Amino acid sequence: MKITLTIQKNDAGQRLDKFLTKTYPNLPQSLLYKALRKKDIKRNGKRCDKADRLEEGDVLSLFLPEDTLQVAPPTYEFMHASKQLDVVYEDEHVILLNKKAGLLVHPDNREYADTLLFRVQRYLYEKGEYDPKDEQSFAPALVNRIDRNTSGIVIAAKTAVALRILNEKLKNREIQKYYLCIVHGKMPKESDTLEAFLEKNEAQNRVYISDTAKAGARTIRTRYTVLEHKNSLSLLEIHLLTGRTHQIRAHLASIGHPLLGDGKYGTNALNKGTGFNKQALCSYRLKFEFTSDADELNYLNGKEFALEDVWFAEAFRNGKIG
């Protein structure tokens, strides 16, 4: 059977073998590599290699058995997600969302249907900006993630190009992230940069902080500024200099100032009677600070976005907490 495919914008930049594996889940890798050797797969009419990077407009010719070229049937799991979505900013390339505490960003073994990712995909599908039938391998995706019980800004990419660029910028720390949180106790300094080492335990879904380096541990840096102190609680702004799992929660707890409402790294005795059953932590502000070319997203450089209302901050300032 012969099939001809034209590579679209959102498919460009991928390796040939990765693209074909995602497009045709019934195609065994052994048959894929054999077909490449026998020239039963051609790119623009010529022999190609599994590691070739696809470009927009490339034409792939596949001479393979029909049963291996069955495209994955549309399931549209995202249509089971809620329509509720708080959009902070949106343009043709990106969307910034205000994720509420309690909402999972990606599916896991506890929650599959109603996640922030699926809400975004449903939103774009119903707007007519995304249709799986028109895409051969791309789907809108989240660039950063925050814990289920943490609220705040999450970036979503509408296009493959935007996703690639923003993933690179996040990795190179060209997107600055700031958090608000409430911690128990009075901080030793009005402002400081904390440094330590973080070790992740996958089985326990928690991390451990130490002052000395050890095998498997990663360096963490957390900058805090005290905004206000009331009674036995402090409102802090955190500048996340490294982005590790549970970093803020574990790092502050390790110096004796766990987050209000955090039962994992804090203590239930401290939180008892406060009315908080989830940590008072919000990713409330981010700034794009590109130090290298961002191609189609250069217009974002220097832009800053912040949430006007953080669910616990006003209550703290008004004396309703602490």
Strand-and-helix sequence, N→C?
EHHEEEEEHEEHEEEEEHHEEH
Please identify the structural class as seen in this structure. alpha+beta
Q: Got a strand count?
A: 15
**What about the largest sheet?**
11 strands, mixed
Give the % helix. Answer: 10-25%
Mean pLDDT: 93
> Given the structure, what is the number of helices?
7
* Backbone CA Rg: 23 Å
Question: Distance between termini?
Answer: 71 Å
Strand proportion, as a percent range, falls in: 25-35%
Shape: elongated
Uncertain regions: pLDDT < 50 for 5+ in a row? none
Describe the structure.
The structure is a single chain. This protein has helices spanning about 15-25, 30-35, 115-125, 160-170, 245-255, 270, 315, and strands spanning about 1-5, 40-45, 45, 60-65, 85-90, 95-100, 140, 150-155, 175-185, 190-200, 205-210, 220-230, 235-240, 280-290, 305. With about 325 residues, the protein is α+β, with helices and mostly antiparallel strands. The strands form two sheets. Strands 5, 6, 7, 8, 9, 10, 11, 12, 13, 14 and 15 form an eleven-stranded mixed β-sheet that branches. Strands 1-4-2-3 form a four-stranded antiparallel β-sheet. The protein is elongated and about 75 Å long. The model has no long low-confidence stretch (mean pLDDT about 95).
Strand-helix topology:
Layout: E1 2-6, H1 16-23, H2 29-37, E2 41-43, E3 46-47, E4 59-63, E5 87-90, E6 94-99, H3 116-127, E7 141-142, E8 151-157, H4 160-171, E9 175-184, E10 191-201, E11 206-210, E12 218-230, E13 233-240, H5 247-254, H6 268-271, E14 281-288, E15 304-306, H7 313-317
Parallel strand pairs: 8-14
Antiparallel strand pairs: 1-4, 2-3, 2-4, 5-6, 6-8, 7-8, 9-13, 9-14, 10-11, 10-12, 12-13, 14-15
